């Protein structure tokens, strides 16, 4: 509890005579996230406050991702180092966190589309020019904005050992993280496979049987996947192939998973509303 208290900053404070902390949005284990306001550029921002012991990890992650510019990745604006804390100023995204997405009972199409968009972010980061993996793709890394665009956060940070160890009960192996000797965020074949499996775990949670008001999903004690009844078998199969490392058709790269999900998304996409289809057929008046 003492560590969490140190992450909390008094709202109303102005950081570096520029960024006004307006309200606490989320309290995590390694950082607190605030909605803030950039008084110079007159825009809303997100501000992360990280404790001193986590400064090296966040600094390294920001160095690796500072040049990222992708519609599915949350942008970084500024970095402020003070004696007792690190402040990361990011793009503010107004949308639904993963817990809210769980409660909203997304359709299979929207679950698959979410996976497609996450894969797009991973593919962008992992190109030969960037060579960055995510490494910590947990529910806390995902938000979907009001337009339905998925935004991924927290690239290149050390992985959440508790989360991934817990979910290793489903189709995992004795190893939780591939290539632990490499710096966080540095891409490798094994780490791309870890990220791909992490996408599968997120999609499974969105389609797993659960209470309607649940904001989180616990891994089944017996390690068996249990999908909701309305989950299409072909979607369940792709997710299982992504999670179960021993599967003979195991999906181990974001590119392969993206291709499989794109096919499913095209098959599941609901038809356009009748009124829209009628309007599209109207001839253009000259």
From TrEMBL:
Domain Protein kinase: 19-261
Enzyme class of the recorded protein, top EC level: transferase
Keywords per UniProt: ATP-binding, Kinase, Nucleotide-binding, Transferase
Matches recorded under PROSITE patterns: PROTEIN_KINASE_DOM
Protein name: non-specific serine/threonine protein kinase
Organism name: Dictyobacter kobayashii
UniProt-listed PANTHER family: MITOGEN-ACTIVATED PROTEIN KINASE KINASE KINASE 20-RELATED, SERINE_THREONINE-PROTEIN KINASE NEKL-3
EC numbers for this chain: 2.7.11.1
GO MF: ATP binding; protein serine/threonine kinase activity
Pfam families: Pkinase
Domain of life, per lineage: Bacteria
């Amino acid at each position: 509890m003492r560590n969490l208290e140190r992450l909390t900053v008094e709202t109303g404070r102005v950081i570096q005579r520029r960024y006004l902390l307006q309200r606490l949005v989320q309290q995590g284990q390694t950082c607190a996230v605030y909605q803030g306001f950039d008084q110079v550029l007159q825009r809303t921002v997100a501000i992360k406050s990280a404790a001193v012991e986590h400064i090296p990890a966040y600094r390294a992650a920001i160095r690796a991702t500072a040049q990222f510019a992708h519609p599915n990745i949350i942008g970084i604006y500024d970095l402020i180092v003070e004696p007792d804390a690190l402040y990361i100023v990011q793009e503010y995204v107004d949308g639904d966190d993963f817990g809210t997405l769980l409660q909203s009972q997304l359709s299979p199409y929207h679950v698959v589309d979410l996976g497609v968009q996450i894969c797009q972010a991973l593919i962008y980061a992992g190109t030969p020019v960037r060579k960055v993996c995510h490494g910590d793709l947990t529910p806390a890394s995902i938000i979907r904005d009001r337009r339905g665009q998925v935004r991924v956060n927290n690239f290149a940070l050390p992985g959440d050992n508790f989360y991934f160890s817990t979910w290793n009960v489903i189709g995992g192996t004795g190893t939780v993280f591939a290539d632990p000797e490499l710096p966080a965020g540095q891409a490798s074949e094994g780490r791309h496979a870890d990220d791909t499996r992490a996408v599968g775990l997120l999609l499974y949670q969105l389609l797993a049987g659960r209470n309607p008001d649940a904001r989180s999903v616990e891994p089944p004690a017996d390690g068996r996947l249990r999908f909701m009844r309305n989950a299409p078998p072909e979607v369940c199969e792709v997710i299982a192939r992504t999670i179960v490392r021993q599967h003979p058709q195991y999906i181990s790269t974001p590119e392969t998973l993206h291709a499989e999900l794109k096919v499913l998304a095209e098959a599941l996409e609901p038809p356009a509303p009748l009124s829209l289809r009628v309007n599209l057929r109207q001839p253009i008046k000259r």
